[in-house]
Write a structure and sequence with these properties.
The chain is α/β, with parallel strands linked by helices and 362 residues long. It folds into three domains: 3-58, no CATH class; 70-315, Rossmann fold; 319-361. Helices cover 33% and strands 18% of the residues. The protein has ten helices and 13 strands. Strand 8 (188-192), helix 7 and strand 9 (224-230) form a beta-alpha-beta unit. Helix 2 packs across helix 3. The protein is globular and about 95 Å long. Residues 1-12 have low confidence and may be disordered. InterPro entries: IS30-like_HTH, P-loop_NTPase.
């Protein structure tokens, strides 16, 4: 009897011990029978690191007919942790509220909506103040917009005192999110946005930790989660890719799907939606078929109206335009520093007459 192993591993499962014995030498007929019986038994519901089943047991009998609900077209499916990222002021918060309220009210969005029963939706707003939110969803003529009673907006409580009980801010937020899920019973969450939840000098690590825990919470409670994120300043002449996600493109590794909201460089005010990652469905809205949309507020509800489809290349900044804008920014910067037109021309290699026109246009 190996007393050393028994002391180190007092709770090692019997089947593991048998497998170890098998590795050290041939099992007796009695041991083989015992191991076979134990491996055939249903696995207990425990906190072990791995869950093992026969491959066939992972397949549902109705798998061929099963298709997850489309919460926002082919961009976001039920049961997914999805990332929506865009530049500042592109309108991602507007789109998120529009999606959340549509799901809560069971009112399908044009083009990308699905007929689904109403459900409770939690919208965690870490961006807007109460006054800013009210301004978006009200007007002097039409008053306040009437949101679905299933749509909830949550903000951080400045008087909360529980953070000191946790090792770091990420653990505090994970615990708060899980408590909210349990108490409300909601299964659809929108977080706006993950950038605001990152703190300290290791912001990227904090965001990755939060995404990892969101994935775990999602799987445990059967959630659908949409997480909003920023893009840093990017080259408007290049297509949007996963590398444009601010902080760390590794965030997408923890997501089931991701899509981006881009600004058209050829039509002021026009935006486009592009699929970046998908697991549950196919890529219908890639670079050759982005979904065009525009922000509108005809009454008291600011929202996106969908206008068709196009190639992303048609809405990127052309190279000459990019060069022109760069030159104008360079001239303006030097002019603000007090340099003369002659000095700016010498510094940039642009003719004095062109510099003079740029300065005049301001």
């Amino acid at each position: 009897m190996n007393h050393t192993n028994a002391a180190l591993y007092p709770s090692r499962p019997a089947e593991i011990e048998l497998i170890r014995d098998m590795a050290r030498g041939a099992l007796t007929a009695k041991q083989k029978k015992k191991l076979s019986q134990q491996l055939e038994q249903p696995l207990p519901d425990s906190g072990d690191a791995f869950i093992m089943r026969k491959a066939a047991d992972w397949l549902r009998p109705d798998a061929q007919s099963y298709s997850p609900d489309k919460l926002f077209g082919d961009f976001w499916y039920r049961g997914e942790l999805c990332i929506l990222f865009a530049d500042t002021n592109a309108g991602k918060s507007i789109l998120a509220v529009q999606i959340g309220n549509a799901l809560a009210a069971a009112e399908p969005l044009p083009v990308l909506g699905s007929v689904l029963p109403p459900e409770k939706v939690l919208y965690f707003d870490f961006e807007l103040s109460a006054e800013q939110f009210e301004g978006r969803y009200s007007s002097h003529m039409h008053g306040h917009y009437k949101f679905s009673s299933n749509f909830y907006r949550l903000v951080l409580n400045p008087d909360a005192t529980g953070q000191q009980r946790f090792k770091n801010y990420a653990e505090y937020m994970n615990n708060a999110l899980e408590n909210t899920i349990i108490t409300t019973g909601a299964r659809t969450l929108i977080l706006d946005n993950i950038t605001c939840l990152r703190t300290g000098t290791h912001a990227a690590e904090s965001a990755i930790s939060l995404m990892r825990n969101l994935q775990a919470i999602k799987n445990h409670y059967g959630l659908s989660v949409l997480v909003l994120a920023h893009t840093p300043k990017r080259n408007a002449a290049k297509p949007i890719t996963r590398n444009d996600l601010q902080g760390s493109k590794m965030l997408i590794n923890f997501a089931d799907s991701a899509f981006a909201l881009g600004d058209s460089q050829t039509d002021a005010g026009l935006r486009y939606l592009k699929q970046i990652k998908q697991r549950s469905g196919k890529q219908y809205y890639g670079a050759d078929n982005v979904c065009l949309c525009r922000i509108s507020k005809p009454y008291n509800f600011v929202h996106f109206e969908f206008e068709g489809f196009a190639h992303e290349a048609d809405h990127l900044q052309h190279y000459k335009e990019q060069q022109q804008r760069h030159a104008e920014e360079q001239v303006d910067r030097l002019h603000q520093q007090g340099l003369s037109i002659r000095a700016i021309a010498e510094r940039t290699g642009i003719s004095k007459s062109t510099v003079a026109r740029m300065v005049k246009r301001g």
